[in-house]
Description:
There is one protein chain. Helices cover about 20% and strands about 35% of the residues. The protein is an alpha+beta fold. It folds into 4 domains: about 25-200, no CATH class; about 210-310, Lipocalin (Beta Barrel), CATH 2.40.128.120; about 315-395, Immunoglobulins (Immunoglobulin-like); about 400-520, Sandwich (Immunoglobulin-like), CATH 2.60.40. Helix 3 crosses helix 4 (about 85-95) and helix 7 (about 125-130) packs across helix 10 (about 175-190). One heme C binds next to helix 3, helix 7, helix 8, helix 9 and helix 10. The site of one heme C has 20 residues, from helix 3, helix 4 and helix 9.
Amino acid sequence: MSMASFAASWRLLALMTLGALAATPAVAALSPAGAALLQAKCAGCHEARADGSLERIAEARRSPEGWEMTVGRMSLIHKVQLDDGTRRTLVKVLSDAYGLAPSEALPWRYLPERRPGGAEHFENQLVGDTCARCHSYARIALQRRSEADWLRLSNFHVGQYPSIEIQSNGRDRNWWEIASRQVPPLLAKLYPLDSPAWARWQAQTWVKPGGNWRVVGHRPGWGDYEGVATITETAADEYTMTMELRYADGRSEKASGRAILYTGYEWRASLRQGDQDVRQVFTLSEDGSHLQGRWYLRDVDTLGGDLAATRLAGTPAVLAVNPEYLKAGVAQQLEIHGTGLTGPVDLGQGVRVLRELRRSAETVVVEARPGANAAVGQRTVKVGETAAGDLLTVYRRIDSLRLEPDRGLARIGDNGGALATQPAQFEAVGYIGGKGGKTLQRIGVFPAQWSFANANANARTYRDASFAGRLEPSGLFVPAAAGPNPKRKFGTNNTGDLTVTAAVADGKRRIKAAAPLIVTVQRWVDPPLR
Ligand code: HEC
Ligand code: HEC
């Protein structure tokens, strides 16, 4: 399944959920037990306001990771004594009462999901220029505050980090003037404390994710996978999950672990998957019918995959097609994955279904061949009455190639140190069109031959390509060991400034694409939201 189709289905979910429900005033839903916990742990410093809610705490809303950071700071800086269990309960209580609506968190999911690569988009340039120099913009956009509280945040920054005005290029402007006068009203407008979306989400009954699920996904470097999952509620908003995954290349994995659901939709799980520990950062759709997001290896978050789950007993659906493309004139085996699949397979005009090889309600395998002159582009895949429009592309030739991610970041590590190396996984994605201003149409991921070289004169001087790491046939760049290297010029460490190139064969043609790759040092301070 392509990233593009994940993004498309997200947009669809977002559109579907922007209902026309009337706004009701936001009344924070603290349970009596939750209120008592805040009273016991926080009210010593945070005074009760007229309505009984606590100063500062009720004046902002955050993601679960945002609350984790704030509560962590209360312990770290203000010496609030909390054991691990109490801290976890606090994060849950606070995220449920003072969280974000699904639509508020939606554009910024890449941050908690720890999606590798890509540059951030600043929703507001002045806020970005003033505030997103030490940490991400998304850390800010994943909060909602009153204007007074946004101002207090600027005050906190200067109080806690007095050198803020002169570090991180802060001297290029009158930082404090901007941060205290211009930024708070802007942020209060962009990311306000009270919103119709949050009022509506609080008024809504939150659906629980327990049940049986059909799973499809893509793991860069490994390929597509599909399977089933079972989710069981063990205590309020606490779950166990088991999964069985089958990869397109024949590999399979079992997974099992535990999850917590925050704010009615923020799914955070820790599982043992195959022989690795993974974390899931998923979102439950507002109607409880879809669970979707990214998972990553606990110690190496650059590696992981996308996952989309649909209720097994829900409306029949075509969810994934593997491979995601057919070449015109070539007969190929095609796996169609979904739920409740019955009826004949139809791949549209000019694509013949030659024979059916295997069938169940969850998977239909056929052999298909687009005619040599079949129209190129996306195809609707139909199984009986069930159809999906963005899962299969017919192509005649790969017109251009791009790498995903379009810029890579890897980190040296290991070598007896505390931190593992952080590899970078690339994929080569083929496109139709692009020349002469024609829009690009994504075909899918193609097997490629990988190589890398020094990116510039400085890298050549230091011979970065000889020291910074190696590339595996799957497009995985594995960085070299941390620490000074006596074999390098000035005994420097194994960092590097590289260019990674993929070459894909399309018949007799070879198409190439390149992307920059920075191999840098370890990230010693790694907060929940970067
Ligand atoms: C020992 C005193 C003390 C206790 C107890 C305390 N806090 Fe705070 N809190 C502070 C101070 C001082 C600030 C302002 C400086 C800062 O933001 O760190 C603050 C700020 C905050 C803020 C605003 C942070 C921001 O990002 O602007 C929140 C939210 C908060 N506290 C939540 C809590 C919660 C939840 C608890 C209970 C678990 C708690 N505090 C317990 C002293 C305390
Ligand atoms: C000089 C570097 C720097 C700049 C510039 C900066 N920040 Fe921060 N910011 C930090 C650090 C460090 C923290 C972590 C504080 C902690 O939790 O201990 C932080 C934390 C935060 C948090 C999370 C706070 C919480 O606990 O809820 C938000 C939100 C935030 N910053 C917003 C902003 C905004 C808005 C601006 C611009 C007005 C800004 N930052 C500018 C360094 C910076």
